Amino acid sequence: MFTDTKLRQAEDVRTIKEKSRNTPKNSAKFVESETIDDRQMKAQDLALRGHNIVITGQGGTGKTFLIKQLCKDQSKKGTSYAVTSTTGLGATLFGRATTIHKFIGLEDGRHQNNQFLHVLCQSCNNEDNITASLTNLSEYIE
Ligand SMILES: Nc1ncnc2c1ncn2[C@@H]1O[C@H](COP(=O)(O)OP(=O)(O)OP(=O)(O)O)[C@@H](O)[C@H]1O
């Protein structure tokens, strides 16, 4: 059996939930617009100008979205590009991504160091391979 106080409390909770649903949040702009925001645009601009960049930020801030957007842009232009990840799980976030080791021709990690070096050197000489690398960073965006 509910007392008046309990019913009032339940009503208050409903009101708070309703208000919070109608209150614009930081992410609201994401729902309204499917275009990149200012910070994403800054990163996109640097990437398109050929900089090596690190995109970092809290979960849900749009890193994956930005990378997908960059991929879409490259596809539209017909530019050759590759998306790689250090882990298979990471690669599943992006349609045509592979692990970095598969990308350079290693398939998996069961190689001798000299084999690894050989494949890596061959891959580096292939100018068609464009890869986002976490080394040789020239820009850092937070
Ligand atoms: N500019 C944007 N316009 C519309 N939606 C966006 C934009 N940026 C991000 N989003 C949306 O916000 C949500 C979180 O973005 P995303 O998954 O890219 O974040 P993340 O930083 O990669 O998160 P995590 O670190 O948890 O993987 C997704 O639903 C994504 O579609």
TrEMBL record:
Transmembrane segments: none
Uppermost EC category: isomerase
Catalytic activity: ATP + H2O = ADP + phosphate + H(+)
Pfam families xref list: PIF1
SUPFAM superfamilies: P-loop containing nucleoside triphosphate hydrolases
Entry EC no(s): 5.6.2.3
Biological process annotations from GO: DNA recombination; DNA repair; telomere maintenance
Alphabetized InterPro entries for the sequence: DNA_helicase_pif1-like_DEAD, P-loop_NTPase
Any one Gene Ontology molecular-function term assigned to this protein's record: ATP binding
Gene3D superfamilies, alphabetized: P-loop containing nucleotide triphosphate hydrolases
Reported cofactor(s): Mg(2+)
Keywords: ATP-binding, DNA damage, DNA recombination, DNA repair, Helicase, Hydrolase, Nucleotide-binding
Residue span(s) of domain DNA helicase Pif1-like DEAD-box helicase: 47-114
Similarity section: Belongs to the helicase family.
Protein's name according to its UniProt entry: ATP-dependent DNA helicase
Species name: Pinctada imbricata (Atlantic pearl-oyster)
Source species taxonomy: Eukaryota, Metazoa, Spiralia, Lophotrochozoa, Mollusca
